[in-house]
Design a protein that fits this description.
Layout lengths: L2 H30 L7 H26 L7 H17 L4 H6 L1
Length: about 100
């Protein structure tokens, strides 16, 4: 195989590999679960729930780039979620719970 051709394929796989993997996982779930998976409401729910993990991952990426490794980020995200959910369940508004 031509080295230039191999380098080009390697570059494209590095760029598009994660997206292709996500597409394969999405397709498997789309075919294996009920039709309710492909609804707009479910896609919105998935996007909302994924954004929390994405924000935490972005924060961890910045910490790692800065030279430190802090494994407490995941536990802090979980703890904060539990505290906010408890305060909302107790009757506080979401904004007051987030401030709490």
């Amino acid at each position: 195989m031509n080295p230039a051709y191999k380098a080009l394929w390697s570059r494209y796989l590095n760029l598009l590999g994660p997206v292709m993997g996500l597409g394969v996982v999405f397709a498997v779930f789309a075919f294996r679960v009920p039709d309710s998976f492909l609804t707009a409401t479910n896609m919105e729910t998935i996007a909302r729930q994924t954004s929390i993990v994405g924000i935490a991952a972005l924060g961890m990426t910045l910490v790692i780039i800065a030279g430190g490794i802090d494994l407490s980020v995941g536990s802090i995200v979980a703890f904060t979620s539990v505290v906010i959910a408890t305060l909302v369940k107790a009757g506080l508004s979401p904004l007051a719970a987030a401030l709490g």
